[in-house]
């Protein structure tokens, strides 16, 4: 009840792209890929509703007209060439319409534009390690830090339970970013719904994805691959900032090395 009576709590949550209680639908998209995923979902839902209404109408019509009180003698029709052609071609046509935007989205997700920044993500049991290697001349000079979930007892006012971390990933907006993902022990999955990113972290393998932040904000995600006892306690927090603020953050990190 303390959080419910404090307006600062709602103000802080409103600025974050995080799941909310009884939420229905997606989080607000913060990248072109996330926007494309939601648009494709809405398009498919349209066809789904049309098919559902038609099937329910046909079922109710059949139950009404072929009830035993209205039609005591069952029909002897066992084959209809025209009907079979229609119910084969129509679903195929619908699937082809759905395939066009889905393939376009799939190829756009695999396309890697010449990145301005590379972020390496390493999954551990049970935390994440992030490495910015573009700003170093040697392995010892890289910006590397671990990101652990903040325990519930250490949360401050406005912070989200099971979602806050001690070290956030800071990325610039309006910048093409390449993300390389791997794991040090078992399978993990780096997923941030508002960014439309969900990529498996596989030990001994480098998976690659890209992201382009369209706006500033704090974007929350979680490990989406069951990885052991504390699987639910390794959240992801990405903070999108302006380029000047990002460069200032990088400068401070380099000074701390």
UniProtKB/TrEMBL annotation:
Pfam families: COX2, COX2_TM
Sorted UniProt keywords: Copper, Electron transport, Membrane, Metal-binding, Mitochondrion, Mitochondrion inner membrane, Respiratory chain, Signal, Translocase, Transmembrane, Transmembrane helix, Transport
Main subcellular location of this protein, as a coarse class: mitochondrion
Catalyzed reactions: 4 Fe(II)-[cytochrome c] + O2 + 8 H(+)(in) = 4 Fe(III)-[cytochrome c] + 2 H2O + 4 H(+)(out)
Domain Cytochrome oxidase subunit II transmembrane region profile: 18-113
GO terms of biological process kind: ATP synthesis coupled electron transport
Cofactor: Cu cation
CDD domains: CcO_II_C
GO cellular component: catalytic complex; mitochondrial inner membrane; transmembrane transporter complex
InterPro entries: CcO_II, CcO_II-like_C, CcO_II_C, Copper_CuA, Cupredoxin, Cyt_c_oxidase_su2, Cyt_c_oxidase_su2_TM_dom, Cyt_c_oxidase_su2_TM_sf
Any one GO molecular function term: oxidoreductase activity
Mode of membrane association: Multi-pass membrane protein
Keyword hit for Metal-binding: yes
Compartment list: Mitochondrion inner membrane; Mitochondrion membrane
Ranges for domain Cytochrome oxidase subunit II copper A binding: 114-252
Cofactor annotation comment: Binds a copper A center.
Signal peptide: 1-16
NCBIfam families (alphabetical): CoxB
Record's function text: Component of the cytochrome c oxidase, the last enzyme in the mitochondrial electron transport chain which drives oxidative phosphorylation. The respiratory chain contains 3 multisubunit complexes succinate dehydrogenase (complex II, CII), ubiquinol-cytochrome c oxidoreductase (cytochrome b-c1 complex, complex III, CIII) and cytochrome c oxidase (complex IV, CIV), that cooperate to transfer electrons derived from NADH and succinate to molecular oxygen, creating an electrochemical gradient over the inner membrane that drives transmembrane transport and the ATP synthase.
Family that this chain belongs to: Belongs to the cytochrome c oxidase subunit 2 family.
UniProt protein name: Cytochrome c oxidase subunit 2
Native source organism of the sequence: Ostreococcus tauri (Marine green alga)
Lineage, highest ranks first: Eukaryota, Viridiplantae, Chlorophyta, Mamiellophyceae, Mamiellales
